[in-house]
Task: structure prediction
Amino acid sequence: MLLLPKFRLLAATLATLLLVSCAKEEKPVLPHTLVNIIISTNMPDYISLQNPATGIKISYYNSLPVGYLGNGVIVYNSLEGFKAYDATCPNSDFKSIKIVDQIYGECPSCKTRYSLESGFAMGKGNLHLQRYSVMSNGEYLNIYN
Result:
């Protein structure tokens, strides 16, 4: 009688291990693009980032286009800190997404919406935005990969 509960526990543990070991790691869809941007949130172009739940799109840094194919980088002030994403839609021919209602990104081609809080796709697309690291040091933000 005691053998049956132990067998069930062993079977459940093995099944869990099998499922976890078979889970695929999500690989980036976009090719690696070097990003290293430093901005001041006190500068006029970026001052809106001082407000929570606000996003901006950076298209150029030091007169050079940024992001994959020069589509830009989106920086978002979330409740958990600053987040940054490549502004390239991974679901539709790598089109540049635009910011909608300060909290979403939207692809003009496939109409997929992305939460700037998480980078997750909503709608037709199932691929999420490529995220970059952000280090905050007072008024300065370093966006990099």
Q: What stands out?
A: Residues 6 and 16 are 15 Å apart (CA to CA). Confidence is low (pLDDT under 50) at residues 9-25. Residues 3-22 form the longest helix (20 residues).
